[in-house]
Each structure stands twice: as C-alpha cells, then as structure tokens.
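Please, structure for the following, as tokens.
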Amino acid sequence: WGEVKNAVTRAEKGADWPAMPTVTVPRAERGAIRVDGVLDEAAWKQAVTFSGEYQFNTKALREGNTITWKMIWDDEFLYVAYDCLDATLTAKNRDRDDDVWADDCVEIFILPDIRFRTYWELVVSPAGSVFDSVQCKMLDQWGCNSDTAQNIEGLKTGIVLNGTLNVPEDTDVGYRVELAIPFSQLPGFTRAPAREGDSLRFMLVRLDKDAKGQGAYSFQPLLGWGHNIWNHAPMILGPKP
C-alpha cells in the first residue's frame, strides 16, 4: 500500500513537472583529454557545465554549490566529469557489479532513444569500484531487468580524492570522477561512429552517504529515480566551440 501511495504521489507531481532541457554537448579534438581525474586540459573549459544538484523529487537546488557536472565528446568517447564536495568520503572496495550504489558514488544512465528501452547504468565510487549493467525498462512495472554480465569494454575512469576514505573522524573536502565512455559500447552506436547532430538521452546522478544515511541527487529535477527513463534529458552531440 505504501508503494501504491508513493506511485500516486509521483504521478500527481508529473502533471506539472518541469521538462528536461536539451543539452548540447560540445566536441573536443580527439585525444585532447587524459582521463586522470585532474580536469586540467583546455578542452574541459569548453565542456557543457552544470552547477549544483537537486534531491530526487524536488525542484529546488540543494543548499550550497555541492557539485559541478561536465560533459564533452570526441569521435571515440563521451567524457563526463563530476566534481563533488563531500565532508565524509565513504566507499568500500567492491568487486565489479557489487552494490556500488550503497556508497558515495556518481552515476550516468544513458540510452540512445526513449523508444529504445535498452540502456546502460554506470556507477563509480571514489574507491574506484564500478557497477555497469545493461538495463531493460519494464513498461508495466516500476523496476527494470538488469544484465550485469555485460561490461562497458574500454571504459576509462580517473579519480582524485581530496580527503581520506572511510575515516569519519576527519573532515574531507570531496572527490572528482572523470569518465570516458566509448560510443562503440552504447546501443545504437555500435556500427557507426558518433557524429555531430546525433542524439541520446541521459541522466546524471550523485549518491551522497554519511552517518545519517544516503541522499540521492541529480543534475536537473528528477521525478522518481534514475531509472525513470521518461524523465531523462535529451542530449545533442554538438560542434567544436
């Protein structure tokens, strides 16, 4: 009964929920970015950038500039960077496809088209643990079918910590995650290279864990959770700035 009530509440909110903006991601020269978590390349200054985050099911920014999100692409990779403020860095060293989402972590959900339900969920923690799964959204139920046997081959990750993991007695500053996701691994892009004007849909998420629990946040107001593919944002692969 509680889940039914929550579903009704979400449906009522959806009537006037803000539409996701179309995000144009600029193009970089191939090889212009080293995936090391530092973000000191000139190309990152040209990336599309968002500041701040929204707790799931809210329309107001979380207090303080707690995260910066960046995206750029070249003909081989989609690059995503998360620069997170976090006073308590908490993440276990987990095996691939373990419960990485139970820790501090960042996520991207990415699919080629809202009519094509197969999409990737990629989760990376400040400990370097990775969860990646091909998901198929069930249209008549809340959840999805997951295939964790598939991995994003050629995925690159770079992580920088500004603090110490799993030491609650100290005060940390945060962490940064840089990702390079091969277009060749994305549904719809496996047989042809990415081109200017191509479109995808995506959602950027950060999960923030502390002693009180875990908060779930997105780069734009998100109704429900990250698997609500109907509330994902359109992405256009744009030209070089």
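The CA atoms of residues 24 and 63 lie 26 Å apart. DSSP finds two helices and 14 strands in the chain.
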